[in-house]
From TrEMBL:
Full protein name: adenylate cyclase
Gene Ontology MF terms in the entry: adenylate cyclase activity; ATP binding; metal ion binding
Keyword tags: ATP-binding, cAMP biosynthesis, Glycoprotein, Lyase, Magnesium, Membrane, Metal-binding, Nucleotide-binding, Repeat, Transmembrane, Transmembrane helix
Membrane topology per record: Multi-pass membrane protein
Alphabetical list of SMART domains matching this protein: CYCc
Primary location class: membrane
EC primary class: lyase
EC number(s) recorded for this UniProt protein: 4.6.1.1
Cofactor entry: Mg(2+); Mn(2+)
Compartmental location: Membrane
Amino acid sequence: MEQVKLDNKRILFNLLPAHVAQHFLTSNPRSMDLYYQSYSQVGVMFASIPNFNDFYIELDGNNMGVECLRLLNEIIADFDELMEKDFYKDLEKIKTIGSTYMAAVGLVPTTGAKARKCISAHLSTLADFAIEMFDVLDEINYQSYNDFVLRVGINVGPVVAGVIGARRPQYDIWGNTVNVASRMDSTGVPGRIQVTEEVHRLLRRRAYRFSCRGKVSVKGKGEMLTYFLEGRTDGNGPQTRPLSSERRTCLYGRAGLQTGLATGCPRVGAGPGALQGSGLAPQPPGPHLPPAAAGKEA
């Protein structure tokens, strides 16, 4: 009986964030009250593989699509394994939707000055995770002779988190912040990490390199100024496997990406690292991402 309780507890902690699982373990099991928690600042990421649908096909030779799903499971499982790193302990996987991976940071209850102090550090962790996801997918491409491309969107802001359902309860997050994060993915560019202006504001002084994409039409929001996260400008953060230039170019080229800089980008001021005039090219992107399209460094 004791072993059954331990197994049930392990399953519960695998389905729900630790603080949520603990709430249900200590609450009245007959209570049907809705569990929810509001947060003022949460980083939300959607990472999709837009060309997976083109890959999926049902044939006798691939067990009517099962082998395609087996590969998708391997990709998602490798993303899960990446999140198990101690460096990413503050991240929470929310769910997968088809070939889209949804994660968030900042969902452990904090209050006051501590919460305000943590958000840029939390966002930094989420950004590093997104960057390293490209390495994980590239390794799978290398081993399976595929050319899957990752497209990522990140936003930050208030959300409501809760558990819905009595059978197979689902932990999820809701709010405009989540919707915009999803739009950052869907309106993004394969091979790039698109972020909102607020994410750029919080991370631009934390050793990250950005290029301004410009104004993008976002459903329900109108025109939004967005940025591409190109990588880190230092050697800190998690250790990631560097990609050779040949493989970066090959993957980027197969995706056929041509990205122009939209209008509406703020002018780059003078200062260390600023681009002044057309005589200086932007810094090359870090080893994690495909070569970036020419643009203004933000």
